[in-house]
Design brief:
By secondary structure, the chain is α/β, with parallel strands linked by helices. It is 35% helix and 17% strand.
Length: 355
């Protein structure tokens, strides 16, 4: 963690700035995510959709020191005092942007969200975490209940497997030329698979590109719609970026060279040998009320180039590790063999393969 982070940033982190009043069971699943100071209302959404422990990184970028100004910390305490669920479930870890790194409040700041993901996960107080993508997605179903109903799933989780929650978005209104007006009210969002499938059929809910993009064939929707048991992902795509459930420890951390790239977190896990399983009835839903940060063209270019280079570096790193351990031909290394023996990555592998 923090390999690519400025000391000025990491010195401005306050773990457990607010600690929940309950002590979670180690076998519980903690929802981990992050919010910006202008998104505090998202805490209410989270506790309404998730009944277990929650670990949140709150990023305060422009604290208000002006008399009468809107102070995010004051708003946080007011919200917490008025909502018993927030008091009982949510641990909040405060991260403030140092003065030297701040931009004018009118500009869009590319937050180091992979750092946020790692922090929220690191400070979780249970052995298992739900890495919820911070794009406004919410867990629509009770994932903890699903794992209690199938003890073998928990056994897979303990051994380092990854469980995928398929993602869905609320469809934009066809009447709105901007494409931003929602079709559904927040209270109408689906909370079970049957209702979800009906809404997909009626065009009220659409597939999230992070799970179902045409070029990403990790999960086949028609197959998932009829599944009642776990299904393994066979053809992995490095741009796959849904919300997932993993072990809190003994799993690789998100690469922090990226501003915001959940797919990079999952690609490393896949290359290291983790099997990905798609949950048959659990999913996430994005109500459309929270928008991801809009990056500048320069930031997009930098992220794209970094990620392309990251693919090759990751393949080389994991291939070397498997060769050094004498495991290149093992079942655990099969993901690395399949994903990295393609295109330019094959040249990198020939550098480490013994003669």
């Amino acid at each position: 963690m923090f390999t690519f982070s400025s000391p000025d940033i990491t010195d401005n982190i306050q773990p457990f700035f607010v600690r929940s009043e309950s002590t979670p069971n180690p076998d519980d699943i903690t929802l981990t995510t992050f919010i910006h100071q202008d998104e505090l209302s998202q805490l209410i959404r989270l506790v309404e959709h998730f009944s277990g422990p929650i670990s949140v990184v709150l990023h305060v970028d422009h604290p208000s020191d002006e008399p009468g100004g809107s102070n995010p910390i004051t708003r946080l305490h007011t919200m917490r005092n008025s909502n018993p669920k927030i008091r009982n479930q949510v641990d909040i870890h405060l991260m403030t942007t140092p003065q030297s790194h701040r931009r004018p409040s009118s500009t869009t700041v590319q937050q180091q969200t992979n750092v946020h993901r790692n922090l929220a996960r690191f400070f979780a107080r249970t052995d298992f975490v739900l890495l919820l993508d911070a794009d406004g997605s919410l867990p629509a179903t009770d994932v903890a209940k699903s794992f209690k109903e199938y003890p073998t799933w928990m056994d897979k989780l303990r051994t380092g497997n990854v469980f995928v929650l398929p993602g869905f978005d609320e469809a934009p209104s066809v009447e709105d030329a901007s494409g931003l007006a929602p079709v559904l009210n927040y209270s109408q969002l689906p909370k079970d698979k049957s209702t979800l499938l009906t809404m997909v059929h009626d065009g009220q809910v659409v597939l999230s590109e992070k799970t179902w993009k045409r070029t990403i064939r990790n999960v086949d929707f028609n197959t998932w719609a009829t599944r009642t048991m776990l299904s393994a992902i066979q053809n992995y795509d490095p741009y796959f970026g849904p919300s997932v459930i993993i072990r809190r420890d003994k799993m690789l951390w998100c690469p922090e060279r990226f501003g915001n790239n959940q797919a990079a977190c999952l690609f490393e896990l896949y290359l290291s040998g983790a099997d990905f399983w798609v949950l048959p009835k659990d999913f996430t839903i994005n109500g459309g009320e929270r928008k991801e940060a809009v990056l500048t063209e320069r930031e997009k270019t930098i992220n794209t180039r970094l990620y392309q280079k990251f693919h090759e570096e990751s393949c080389l790193k994991h291939a070397r590790a498997f060769y050094a351990a004498g495991e290149w031909d093992s079942d655990r290394a099969r993901h690395c063999r399949i994903s990295c023996q393609k295109g330019k990555k094959l040249d990198a592998l020939t550098l480490v393969k013994p003669a």
